[in-house]
Amino acid sequence: MPGLLGAPGAPAQPVGLPSMGTASGADLSPALERRLGEAIMVQGRRDPTYIDDTEVIQYLTVMGRKLAAHAPGGAPQIEVFGVRDPGINAFAMPGGYIGINSGLVVSSDTESELAGVLAHEIGHVSQRHIARGFTQQNQTGTIMMASMAAALLAGLAGGVDLASGLAAFGQAAAINQQLGFSRDAEREADRAGMEMLSKAGYDPGGMARMFGRLMNVSRLNEGRGAGAYASTHPLSIERMSDMQNRVRAMPDLHRADSDDFWFVRARLRVTQALDGQNLRAAVQQLNNEAQSLSGVRQAAARYGVALAEIQRGNTAEAERALAQAREGYRDSPQIARAEIELASASGDTAQALQRADAAYKRWPDRRILGYLYAQNLQRSGRHQEAMAFLQERLKAWGDEEPRLYQLIAQSAEALQQPVAARRDMARYYLAVGALPAAVSQLQQARNISSDFYEQSQIDVEIREAKDRLAEERKLLERFRS
């Protein structure tokens, strides 16, 4: 990480964070706030806009945790995920869960601009603005809390409707708007974010440039605003002036964008194209970039074209685009992933497995490549090897990757181990907080088993899951009341 040197000049306002006073005793504790966020995410992961892509989640979460490590007052627990939406938006939810719209990534001209918005959201988390908003908004906050708790309780009972459920991500962004962060809160998040950006090695000017662009696009002025992000985080001339003054007082830091940024950006451009017309527009934009740019940016654009062609079923065109991407940029885990996906789309499981094996050995830190290797072992009927590999990954990655349990369960089922399969599926559901589903899986396992010792173990697991479910309901009932 680059060293930080002092710079001349002084900001127009004090460098420290503005004081908003201490949180009241009625505030949500961090532990309760986290549990509320986890309950929202149980439903949120079922939202059709949730981007269930390990590579995207890993990239965003690594960036978020790098920033959060430098948060004033200590690093908050952060989980960052992507939302399939071309709108330029980001939102923080209770407990440190932060959603980033695909449109925000695609519209960012540099990685520091994306990091700037994420740092601002982490600023809201680290300063506990969401918890304060819930507990200091009097009647409005009480109504919001009760409505959210009612929706989550319906989810625990299996009766949630994602089209109207409060936990859907569009509603989560709306909650931010209803909380109506004060000017002091927004300024506090700006200043905390800039401090994180600088200390994490990003260009603090990225935040000012991105917010300035949002102001221009939305034609904002003091007291007026439009656009997705502006509606939840009102921008103003005052805020922009404060940011610009602070940038001038900070070290002149020009950070090179990571290669990952450009590849994730290209993938999300394709991901957010939900119909043929938008996909054609995305391919046209990517082709334009491929013709006008060079180096990693050109390779990433061609990679994006290949992803679109795979999605269209044009495997020959996808292969041609990937070959062009490799011409000037051969060493890329993203291109290797696309080549695995291309082989799978072509029905060549043997080649997909060979490519996945080589790619994972080359980039063992890329979790998506580990998943692709395990999945292609399964498709090849090599479930014993897949299970052994997945169990090793479980030791290394832990509960951060609950999907491992799901894949282990699939191999156990294929190996005619139905009790083990259901217990592993229960572990998956427990890890993601889907408690009723976990209880159901354990009860099925208990009914299938004929081994007294095993049944006794499962009985303990059922009791623990039911106790946790009862605690969750009690917690939500408390919020509802």
From TrEMBL:
PANTHER family: METALLOENDOPEPTIDASE OMA1, METALLOENDOPEPTIDASE OMA1, MITOCHONDRIAL
GO CC terms in record: membrane
GO molecular function: metal ion binding; metalloendopeptidase activity
Domain of life: Bacteria
GO biological process: proteolysis involved in protein catabolic process
UniProt cross-references to Pfam families, sorted A to Z: Peptidase_M48, TPR_19
Keyword Hydrolase: yes
UniProt keyword Cell division present: no
InterPro entries the record matches: Mito/Outer_Membr_Metalloprot, Peptidase_M48, TPR-like_helical_dom_sf
Keywords: Hydrolase, Metal-binding, Metalloprotease, Protease, Zinc
Protein name per its UniProtKB record: Exported zinc metalloprotease YfgC
